[in-house]
Structure formats: C-alpha cells, structure tokens
Amino acid sequence: MANMRQTVRNAINYGGGQLKKCCSYETLKKCLPILQWLPEYSFQWLQLDFIAGLTVGLTVVPQSLAYADVAGLPVQYGLYSSFMGCFVYCLLGTSKDVTLGPTAIMSLLVYYYAFQDPVYAVLLTFLSGCIQLAMGILQLGFLVDFISYPVIKGFTSAAALTIGFGQVKNILGLHGIPQEFFQQIYYTFKYISETSVGDVTLGLVCILLLLLLSMMKKHPPKSQQEVPLFIRLCNTVVAFSATARNALIVVSAGLVAYSFEITGFQPFDLTGRTAEGLPSFQLPKFSEIVSNTTVTFSDIVAEIGPGLAVIPLMGLLESIAIAKAFGSKNDYRIDPNQELLAIGLTNFLGSFVSSYPVTGSFGRTAVNSQTGVCTPAGGLVTGIIVLLSLAFLTPLFFYIPKAALAAVIICAVAPMFDLKIALTLWKVKKVDLLPFFATFFLCLWEIQYGILVGIGVSGIILLYNVARPKAKVSVFEHGTLVVHLQSGLNFPAVEHVSHLIYENALGVSSPRNVVLDCTHVCYIDYTVLNGLRDLLFKFHRKGVSLVFSNVQREILKVLLTAQLDEFQYWDNVDEAVLNLAGRTCIEEMDGALKTACTMNDQNADTPGTANTHLLISEHGIK
C-alpha cells in the first residue's frame, strides 16, 4: 500500500513538474519569439524597422500584382496574399529579415494545381496551412533535409526558365498562348509576327531600366568625407530609386499608359479593372458551382492531388532555406519548426482573406536585410502599406501595362536561373549531376514529377552509399587482416561487407584471421547481428578468428546481449593484432612439435635418421 502511495505521489510530482515546465515563461517565449525582442525594443530600432518596412512595401506591391498573373489569378489576389504574413511573422518568426508573401515559384505551383480558379487557390491555402501547422506541431521540419541541394537548384532553375519565358507573351503583347512550357515556345514563335510594337518597346525599356537600377544598387558610390550636400542628396535619391526600382518602373509605366488613355490611343495591353477595397474575412469556399454542377470538397481535393504535398513542402523548404541563409549572414539562429508554425498559421489565416499559398521571398528578404531591419516589426509597416494600397489604389491598377509587370517578373526570376552549378557539380561530384538534370528537365514538363524523380535519384545515390560502405583492408604480421569500415554498418550493407571479408580471408588458399575495426559503427540492427553470427560460424569452421575492435559502448552492449558464438573484442586494433599474432605463433609451435614427435616415433628404429628429426624438433621448439 505504501509503495502504491509513493508511486502515485511520484506520478503527481512528475506531472506537476511537466505542467509547470509547459506553462513557464521560457516556454511561452519559445512559442512567441516576439517576447524575446520586444522588451529590448528601442526608438532607434523603430526608425530602422520603419525605413525597412516602407522599402519592402514599395517592392511587394508591384511584385504581388505581377505574381498573381503568374498564378493565373486576378491581380488583386497578389495583394490579398501579401499582408497576413507580415503580421503573423512578427509574432511567431525567428528571423528578423524574412518576409512572407507571394513568390515566383509558389505562384507557378499555384498555377499548376489551382487551375486558375480562385476558389481552388484559396482552399489550397487553407489545406496547406493545416498541413504545415500539423508538421510544425509534430516537429517534422527535418523532412526538408531529405531534399538535396542539386534537386533544389534543378527545380529553381527550371522554375525561373518557365516563369521567365511565360512572360515573353506579355512583353510581345501576344494573346492565346498556352501555359505549358513547350507549347509556349512553339506558339510564341508561331505568332511572333503579331507582336505589338507598343508592348515590346515598353517591355524592353522597363527591363533595361531595371537592369541599370539593379547594377547601381550593387555598386553604390564610395563614401567620402566632406562631400557636398547636393552630392549626398543625389546619392540618397539614386540609392532609394535602385531599392524601390520595381515600384518606380510600374508607377512610371502606369503614368505613360494613362497619358495615352487621355489622348484616346492606347498602344499597351493593360491590366484592366480589378476588385476594389479590402477582402472580406470569411471561411474559404469548400465547394463551387460550375455550369450548374456542384464541385464538392472531395472533388477539389482529388483534382489538386499531389499539390497537397508539393506546395506545403516547397513552401517550407523555400522559407527555411532563406531564413538559414540570412541567419548565417547576420549571425543569428532560426528554429525550423517554429518557422513552420509561422508559415502554417500565415496560410491558414490567409485563406480567410482570399490569399493563395505564400512562403518566404528571397528578393524582398534581401531588401529587408540591406535596409537595416532590426526586428520582424518591420513587417508591420509593409503589411499596412499593402492594406492601404488595397483600400485606396486598386482603381489605379487598371492603367498598369502588362508588359511592365512582365519586366518586373523576368528581372526578379533571372538570378534564380543558375546553370553554372552544373559546372561546379562536374568538378566536385559528378554523380550529383544526375538528380540536378533529372529535376531540371522533368520540371519543364511537370513540376511534381521533376521534384519526385529528383528526390528519388538522390535517395538512390544515398542508399547506394549506405549499402556499399567503403572499407580499407590492411595486412599485418602473420597474415592478419584488418578491415577498417569507413562508414557505418546498416542492414543493406551486411551482404557486401560479409562478402568482402569472406573473399579476402576465407576465400584464399590459406585462411587468415581478421580484425574488424568498428570505429565508425554507431548503429546496429537484427539483420546485421544475423550476418555477423553467420560470418563468425564460417570463420570458426575454417579454424581462424574474426575479432572486433574499437566497439562503441552502445554497440558492444547490443553484441553482448545477442550472445554471438566465438565473439571476441579488443579496445583497439593493435591489441587485437598482437593477440592474434601471439595465438598464431603458439599454434605454429604446437603444430611443429606434433609433427616432429610423430616423425620421431615413426623413425625411431631407422638408423641414420633420428638425429636429423631431433634437429627438426629442436628448431620447431625454438
């Protein structure tokens, strides 16, 4: 009875301790990272965050309008997708630099899986958010580690090529061009004679100006002491224009188009009328009516299909990769699972304001970092700018030329197209070219197939290295072999290692002892134990030994528990070799003695031979 009371008391104390730990302020700070930096917030931080948020806001508005076109949705959906992440990430984000919103890659994925239907896109946002939240709660952020860098680069390069070429039709002012990549190429060249002079002129001018402003941003003027005020003012204007170049180009193109509209002649293809005002806060639609037929929730999910896996995973991958890159650059650490919760909640709540799936944006994050943001509070300013644009500026979006938005997209995705990585892979590790090119070429056809095949090829390469671990075989004194395993020993590798040892030690005319160096063996399973048991039996039957050295404590515990017959181990290779060498010498001496004695017995009555055999016997004893 006393034992039962003590057990209950211990259980209550343990439960109370765990509850206290879960409800502690430290746990709350981990769940709400805003509590870590808010108590230290200063007026200087406020100034820098305001400037950074304003700059990113001037970047995100034109980019969002352009990315909505990539997603095949009305342009206002780009802005609907741009403000929720600013507010959510301020509470939950662990990176001061990252900004969440629509991106080129995510917009392309939405185009493939939402079929240019806003209902599908918003519902996809809701489901992606639920999946990402569940992954964050279950601490599944490590899954992105299984997507190798060549696969990522293959996908991003293919996406950049697909997105960039998809905007060529808007630069040329062509209509009726399909979205499938290879068909785009065919029909673009087929109808190139119908190119609009106004659109192609405006598009090329916008691209040229964006490139010039980008180069100016990369090569700022060197700071000099006692520079005249006018020069410093000019430098500031140039720097601001280069940073907010997207907004500057779109506004300028809109003014040009409006000027032509007043004259009654419009040489450009315009964005057209968009929905005005802020989106209503409501649940996403779980069904819709198309041609008097109700498309149910299950029908929509079935049509989206692989998108329910691809979009949450790619959203997680893109955002965490960006957060890690800028965390390393600016000397802070991020929590992948916390980032996953932030992305998931952004998409979940974003679906209530008609957002399509979002993730971290590399371009806007770079702008945020370069303008000196101090905390995620800079996102609040960006979010307010987007809301103000939706509330008051949507009527003006009518005059934005599509060619200008296309120029913004092309210049945004151009740096993502990186085939130089192929040359690097050729020099460093040629086998990594297989997943890179498999992902790249298949993503031009179907994105999900490209990603899956790329991951599959990378997995095969990984499993091959696991199943065929490298081993170094050395010969020591008295013919003892030492097998150094260069990597771990897992069940796919048992047959390979067993065959290697058998061929070198037992498959020769004179069987030899073997020392198996287990320095790098940190995991062992039942299949490996069975393989070792069979190998030990074969060595015993041949009259030689297989011993183990440098066995880690946990592995030794498993091997001893398995009670393998003839199992022997030593602390290091030298001790094992010396022991086997000494044993071999004793066996050789015993063999020589037995041989000499037998020959002496047989020839004891033969004259002239006894002295000879006695001499042999004496040499054997020595």
On the 0 to 100 scale, the average pLDDT is 84
Radius of gyration: 35 Å
**Main sheet properties:** 5 strands, mixed
Number of strands: 9
Describe this entry's structure for a reader.
- With 622 residues, this protein is mostly helical.
- The chain folds into three domains: 47-430, no CATH class; 431-467, no CATH class; 471-600, STAS domain (Transcription Regulator spoIIAA).
- It is 64% helix and 5% strand.
- The chain is built from 28 helices and nine strands.
- It has helices at 2-22, 25-31, 34-37, 43-70, 76-80, 84-92, 104-114, 118-137, 149-166, 168-172, 181-190, 197-218, 229-243, 245-263, 297-304, 307-329, 336-350, 362-370, 378-392, 402-413, 420-428, 433-445, 447-467, 494-506, 526-542, 553-561, 573-602, 610-621, and strands at residues 100-101, 288-290, 293-295, 359-360, 471-475, 481-485, 514-517, 546-549, 569-570.
- The strands form three sheets. It has a five-stranded mixed sheet with strand order 5-6-7-8-9. A two-stranded antiparallel ribbon has the order 1-4. It has a two-stranded antiparallel sheet with strand order 2-3.
- α24 (494-506) links the parallel β6 (481-485) and β7.
- α4 (43-70) packs across α20.
- The longest helix has 30 residues, at 573-602.
- The radius of gyration is 35 Å and the shape is elongated.
- The N and C termini lie far apart (73 Å).
- The model is unreliable at 588-597 and 606-622 (pLDDT under 50).
